[in-house]
Design brief:
The structure holds 3 protein chains of 3 kinds. Chain A is an alpha+beta fold. Helices cover 23% and strands 33% of the residues of chain A. In chain A, strand 11 and strand 12 form a beta hairpin. The C terminus of chain A is likely disordered. Chain B has a single domain, classed as MetI-like (MetI-like fold). The radius of gyration of chain B is 24 Å and the shape is globular. Chain C is an all-alpha fold. Chain C has 2 domains: 37 residues; 206 residues, MetI-like (MetI-like fold), CATH 1.10.3720.10. Chains in contact: A-B, A-C, B-C. At the A-C interface, strand 6 and helix 2 of A face helix 7 and helix 8 of C.
């Protein structure tokens, strides 16, 4: 049983508030990612959980125990650092056994654990090598083994994949998921890479400027961004934002914007009528704009629009199109590679009225966000 | 990263520094207390406190001679060390074949104990034989005769102190060189390229770029070397038995005549000289900086 | 035009080459002469009017054999070794913990402290030796091994701390934190992580200390005199006082210098760094 509860956690460096009244509940055995841009406080938060930084205010509770004043070595927590922090003067074996030796575990038990973790991470035949004699991917696995062998309640991972190249990173992600299933530990994973967060975690805690922006399952963070920051940070290519006002026209609810009247899907935006006349920022993901050729039928809630192709950026299997609506306004959307579009061509596109995200320009919050509790279920 | 700023540090965590701190501070206090205590007493008559010893030492011709000798030693030796260091550093600055080898070679004088260097000179400048006398007497075929009779190098004041200075400068060459070389190495090489594109020749580069930029390291050399010159003991001790510097005067007061009080006075005078020289040099460097900056 | 440039470039090179050769000779000559004297036979020294030869008439290692058969010589070498050895031990015992703190904690005034530490060495030995000798007479440490060891420790400590600090400083903070998270306490972190990683630097400090004590003269001379306990430097000084044969003097000098030259060249990098860092700050 090792739930991690953060209650009103705060942290200051000099006069700079790094973490501001943060609440987070991480369930036992859950894989949670702290995601955010650099400087958002995610690493600081992780180091606070590890005990490497003091908690200035609030409560840090792990497994029902208040951890605020417990020194790191008495916490049942293991951590993998971004640099892996392998002890350069020790062999792989000595690195893995370091913590057990400190705990004075019996040699036979130590051997069992060593064999278990080496088998799990595929480190056979590397036991007698020094860290400088093994590859980056192997180092990452040793760091993980060294943490797992201690049988911690909580495993903290600080950007453990950022030093690996792309191919290796994908393998490592799969492996991490497998290990999580196998050991069932609570894992808190820090990264700035949304792909890692999306792929591996059960829930993502999105941080910005020391505050929690959204805490949800990956698909919900993507589908229902609670804040403009969420909408902007998650998803690639970046979302389009357009200013507008909620309005009703000819019995239709939509948004009066500078690119025209954008229809809203009645099922999802049934309550939109209440907000008539309210200023909004509309977020439209490039994925939710389509080009005529690739649409079998139009939905009633689609808005059609004519744009001039200004830029075509190849992303491999698809291309990103930057289309000019008027002199100041452009929208970005994706087309398949086969689509035959040339620069300066005028094309019709359709905006999916079910997938619009409406934000209050002042609070930057989603107007229709289901009021989920940030602290979880 | 920001977290580095707040390394958790508690006063009870730094106790391991205490033994070293106490050791050094303890000796510092002992040294100062004993020096002052001895200098203000007259051990022969068992009087304390008194200025008698100061008066007595200042009146002694041996003291005045030693002070004057040391002053001359410092005034000649310091610039000499600076120029030798500068010469060697410039010599080693540009990269060339065997640079590392020659660089190691240049460090050799530092690796030879000062006592041994003094003894080499002791043997070379022997009287009436010795390499140097034989050389100057023209006994080697390649060299013409310069002197008529062998010179007693270690007996004559100017020669004995001169050889001491020679030994001192020879042994300390690497130190001056290393300090200036580190100054040279910190100059951005692009400066030279820039100067060359503007048509500056070698001499102009030396005068307009190198010299101004290594003034800090040269100041450091002057400061440190002048202090070392004041402190000098071993070379005159071995090579100039009859002609004292302040350092050897202390030794002779203490060991030969048994005057701990007089030795302490001279030691304090020596420390005073060092402090004054340092202050003067630091002041000069500061003034120079002000003037240069406008 | 281009010919003139070529000639001036060539003459510059020639000048520069001459300067290098001159420098090398200036440095090598005394070392060579010392070696030459140490293998000289008597006839190459007492030449009876003819010039002292640049290479001995009959090169011989007899001087070394003579020295190595002298019991007093063994005695002083052992004394020097013992004193140097214990100086290393005491200096490290006191200096390493201090280096650890200075290298790993951001204590206030750290920089000035380190500079002050090196500045202590600017205080003239010949001035501090009088009070130390007087103090040692009072506490009856005069003419003892441990008195010299304590004095040499005083001389070595600033260097040990300075070199030691720069050995502890660059060890990544992450390693310490990792060990901390894995359950190690401060002492275990020091013993199992930091100390092993600082060993190369600390070895340099130890060798430096050893050499400092090995060829130290002033404190040994004032604290031991020419009395019961003698060191190699004092033995050399003692021989000097009795107008010894030059070849024997040179032989003792070679024995005294040999370990210093070897280790200094090995430690070149550390030595240069120490000198310049102490100087420029």
């Amino acid at each position: 049983m090792a739930e991690v509860v953060l209650k009103n956690i705060g942290k200051k460096f000099d006069d700079h508030q790094v973490i501001n009244n943060l609440n987070l509940l991480i369930g036992d055995g859950e894989f949670v990612t702290l995601l955010g841009p650099s400087g958002c406080g995610k690493t600081t938060l992780l180091r606070m959980i590890a005990g490497l930084e003091t908690v200035d205010n609030g409560d840090l509770i792990v497994g029902g125990k208040r951890y605020n004043d417990i020194p790191p070595r008495e916490r049942r927590i293991a951590m993998v650092f971004q640099s892996y922090a392998l002890f350069p003067h020790m062999t792989v074996r000595a690195n893995i056994l370091f913590g057990l030796k400190i705990q004075k575990v019996s040699p036979t038990r130590m051997q069992e654990k060593l064999e278990w973790v080496i088998a799990m991470l595929g480190l056979q035949d590397l036991e007698d090598r020094l860290p400088k004699e093994i590859s980056g991917g192997q180092r990452q696995r040793v760091a993980l083994a060294r943490a797992l062998v201690l049988d911690p309640d909580v495993l903290l991972l600080d950007e453990p994949l950022s030093n690996l190249d792309a191919a290796l990173r994908e393998m490592a992600m799969e492996e991490l998921k497998r290990i999580h299933r196998q050991v069932g530990k609570t894992i808190i994973y820090v990264t700035h890479n949304q792909v890692e967060a999306m792929t591996m975690s059960e829930r993502i805690a999105l941080l910005s400027g020391g505050e929690l922006e959204q805490y949800d399952e990956p698909r919900y963070v993507y589908d229902r961004p609670e804040t403009m920051f969420s909408a902007q940070f998650i998803g690639s290519p970046a979302i389009n934002f357009i200013d507008g006002v909620i309005a009703q026209k000819e019995n239709q609810i939509g948004i009066d914007s500078r690119i025209g009247f954008l229809l809203l899907d009645k099922e999802r935006f049934g309550r939109a009528g209440e907000f008539t006349g309210r200023k909004v920022k509309v977020g439209i993901r490039p994925q939710n704009i389509s080009y005529l050729e690739h649409r079998a039928a139009r939905r009633y809630s689609d808005t059609s629009l004519t744009i001039t192709v200004e830029l075509i950026e190849s992303l491999g299997d698809r291309s990103l199109i930057v289309g000019k609506v008027s002199d100041e306004i452009t929208v970005r959307f994706l087309i398949t590679r086969e689509a035959d579009i040339a620069l300066d061509q005028e094309v019709r596109i359709f905006i999916d009225g079910r997938r619009l995200h409406l934000f209050d320009p002042r609070t930057q919050k989603n107007i229709f966000a289901a009021r989920r509790k940030t602290s979880g279920e | 990263m920001t977290w580095k700023k707040t390394k958790i540090f508690k006063i009870q965590e730094i106790w391991p520094i205490l033994p070293a701190a106490l050791y050094l501070l303890g000796f510092l206090i002992i040294v100062l207390l004993y020096l002052l205590g001895l200098s203000f007493s007259n051990t022969a008559r068992g009087v304390f406190p008194t200025l008698e010893t100061y008066a007595e030492v200042f009146g002694m011709p041996e003291f005045r001679e030693a002070l004057l000798n040391t002053l001359v030693f410092v005034i000649i030796g310091t610039p000499l060390e600076l120029f030798v260091g500068l010469f060697l550093a410039l010599l080693l600055y540009k990269s060339f074949v065997l640079r590392n080898f020659i660089r190691s070679l240049v460090l050799i004088p530092l690796a030879i104990p000062a006592l041994v260097t003094a003894i080499i000179l002791f043997i070379l400048f022997d009287f009436p034989g010795g390499h140097v006398n034989h050389l100057l007497l023209g006994k080697y075929d390649a060299v013409p005769q310069i002197i008529q009779a062998p010179v007693n190098w270690r007996g004559a004041k100017i020669f004995s102190l001169g050889i001491s200075l020679l030994g001192k400068v020879w042994r300390d060459m690497p130190i001056s060189m290393l300090i200036i070389l580190s100054g040279l190495n910190s100059i951005d090489p692009e400066l030279f390229d820039a100067a060359r594109t503007m048509g500056a020749g070698l001499r102009q580069q030396l005068r307009r770029i190198i010299l101004p930029l290594i003034i800090p390291s040269m100041s450091a050399v002057v400061l440190l070397r002048s202090i070392e010159m004041w402190k000098e003991f071993i070379f005159p001790f071995v090579l100039a038995g009859q002609h004292n510097l302040l350092g050897t005067l202390i030794e002779s007061f203490y060991n030969n005549w048994g005057y701990a009080d007089k030795a302490a006075v001279v030691a304090l005078v020596l420390v005073g000289c060092i402090v004054c020289t340092s202050l003067l040099l630091i002041l000069a460097a500061e003034l120079n900086k002000r003037i240069v900056q406008g | 035009m281009s010919n003139i440039v070529k000639i001036s470039a060539l003459s510059r090179k020639v000048f520069w080459l001459c300067a290098v050769i001159f420098t090398v000779l200036l440095i090598i000559a005394p070392v060579f002469l010392l070696f030459k004297y140490s293998i000289s036979d008597a006839s190459s020294i007492n030449t009876g009017g003819s010039p002292v030869p640049l290479w001995p008439y009959n090169p011989t290692f007899r001087n070394f054999l003579y020295l190595f058969s002298d019991n007093q010589f063994y005695g002083v070498v052992i004394n020097s070794l013992l004193i140097a050895f214990f100086t290393v031990i005491v200096s490290l015992l006191i200096g390493v913990p201090a280096s650890y703190v200075l290298g790993r904690y951001q204590i206030p005034l750290r920089k000035p402290l380190l500079v002050g530490l090196i500045s202590v060495r600017l205080f003239p030995d010949i001035a501090s030796v009088i009070p130390v000798a007087e103090f040692f007479i009072t506490i009856e440490a005069h003419n003892t091994y441990w008195g010299v060891v304590l004095a040499h420790t005083l001389l070595a400590l600033p260097y040990v701390i300075f070199i030691g600090t720069s050995a502890f400083e660059p060890i990544p903070r992450d390693l310490e934190h990792q060990a901390m998270v894995m359950g190690a306490n401060r002492f275990q972190i020091f013993l199992k992580i930091l100390f092993p990683l600082a060993i190369p630097g600390l070895t340099a400090a130890a060798i430096y200390t050893f050499l400092l004590s090995w060829d130290e003269f002033i404190f040994a001379y004032f604290l031991l005199g020419l009395g019961r306990i003698s060191t190699l430097t004092l033995y050399l000084k003692q021989k000097l006082a009795y107008a010894p044969p030059q070849n024997l003097l040179a032989t003792i000098s070679v024995c005294l210098s040999f370990p210093v030259i070897i280790f200094s060249l090995l430690l070149q990098k550390h030595m240069s760094a120490g000198i310049t860092s102490g100087a420029v700050k």
